[in-house]
């Protein structure tokens, strides 16, 4: 682990050592289906974009599904890039649902308008997939500044299609959650207050959704490069460390989640995956070699970027850890 941490920028190494963590029961299998995306957002910790070609194969997908069944996880969380652009996305979803596993689709909304995705919304609805959609603000200017020109308008058209299928509508079982992340080097605001603002502003446009999840920008990959260019990496790391809340440690996602990359290798979280820090900080392991019953109470690999998950109200792929 130490040798891998040496590859992390010195500013991150200089932060206080993050507290030791150990795994509890595995509940969620989060799978990155590849880095290809129809967008290239400034905050993206995956460095995803239209030019990326990495994509999970059918063989690896079957290995992931086999582990999912063996481990008895409750939720399969599909991410990318744009996970829907993987050619095996629908097979993976259908297989998980047939096994009684809940599925989350981390959707960027604009993918709904991509060629070949004309029936995507109907497919998601038919399989009762929970859609967790990126919408970093309710204003066009802020969304387009972070995600690209015209993304806001395309996102609203995608939401309209989801709403028409029942997603986010009162009394409907189809869940549509939005994800907010700050536009820069700051912590997310109070999620309850922000959700009320989202519902008021977007409600005027006829948009409905269930919950707003607030996520902290992690100081890695594309966002880290932006911080370095602007000379703000030191200040941002100091913000995260100063806002450390030890009570968040009990709920951080790495204790109950396993992250799998597009090749099938496993990590404690999606952020460690992007930094190349294997599960537990040891040797790289493939999902096909993993014994599901041997994960509990094993160590979690941590480093200074983990302060992003424990700062303030905390942050995970499920949003803030506390109100």
The CATH class is Alpha Beta
Seen as an oligomer or otherwise, the chain set is: single chain
- As for the number of domains, it is 1
Summing up helix and strand content along with how strands pair, one would put the structural category as: alpha/beta
Tell me the strand percentage band: 5-15%
Which blocks of ≥5 consecutive residues have pLDDT under 50? 1-10
Distance between the amino and carboxyl termini: 34 Å
Describe the structure.
This protein is an alpha/beta fold and 323 residues long. The protein has one domain (24-217, 253-296): Aldolase class I (TIM Barrel, Alpha-Beta Barrel). Helix content is 32%, strand content 12%. It has twelve helices and ten strands. It has helices at residues 2-5, 10-13, 58-71, 89-98, 120-126, 140-147, 151-164, 191-203, 221-229, 233-242, 270-275, 307-310; strands at residues 21-22, 28-32, 75-79, 102-107, 130-134, 176-180, 212-214, 257-260, 266-267, 299-300. The strands form two sheets. An eight-stranded mixed beta sheet has the order 7-6-5-4-3-2-8-9. A two-stranded antiparallel ribbon has the order 1-10. The longest helix is centred in the first third of the chain and has 14 residues, at 58-71. It starts with a helix and ends in a 13-residue tail after the last helix.
């Amino acid at each position: 682990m130490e040798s891998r941490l040496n590859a992390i920028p010195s500013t991150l190494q200089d932060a206080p050592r993050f507290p030791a963590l150990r795994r509890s029961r595995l509940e969620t299998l989060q799978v990155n289906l590849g880095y290809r995306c129809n967008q290239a957002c400034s905050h993206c910790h995956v460095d995803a974009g239209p030019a990326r070609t990495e994509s999970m194969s059918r063989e690896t997908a079957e290995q992931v599904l086999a582990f999912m069944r063996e481990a008895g996880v409750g939720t399969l969380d599909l991410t990318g890039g744009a996970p829907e652009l993987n050619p095996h996305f629908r097979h993976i979803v259908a297989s998980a649902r047939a096994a009684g596993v809940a599925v989350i689709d981390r959707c960027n909304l604009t993918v709904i308008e991509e060629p070949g995705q004309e029936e995507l919304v109907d497919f998601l609805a038919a399989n009762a997939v929970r859609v967790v959609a990126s919408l970093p603000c309710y204003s066009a200017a802020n969304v387009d500044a972070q995600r690209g020109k015209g993304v806001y308008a395309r996102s609203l058209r995608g939401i309209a299609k989801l709403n028409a299928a029942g997603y986010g509508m009162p009394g409907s079982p189809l869940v549509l959650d939005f994800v907010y992340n700050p536009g820069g080097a700051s912590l997310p605001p109070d999620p309850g207050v922000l959700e009320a603002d989202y519902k008021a502003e977007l409600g005027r446009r006829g948009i409905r959704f269930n919950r707003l999840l607030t996520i902290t920008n992690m100081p890695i990959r594309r966002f880290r490069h932006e911080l370095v260019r602007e000379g703000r990496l030191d200040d941002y790391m100091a913000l995260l460390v100063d806002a450390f809340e030890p009570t968040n440690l009990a709920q951080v996602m790495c204790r109950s989640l396993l992250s799998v990359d597009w090749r099938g290798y496993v990590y404690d979280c999606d952020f460690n995956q992007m930094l190349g820090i294997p599960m537990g900080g040891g040797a790289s392991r493939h999902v096909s070699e993993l014994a599901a019953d041997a994960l509990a109470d094993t160590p979690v690999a941590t480093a200074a970027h983990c302060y992003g998950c424990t700062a303030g109200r905390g942050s995970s792929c499920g949003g803030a850890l506390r109100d």
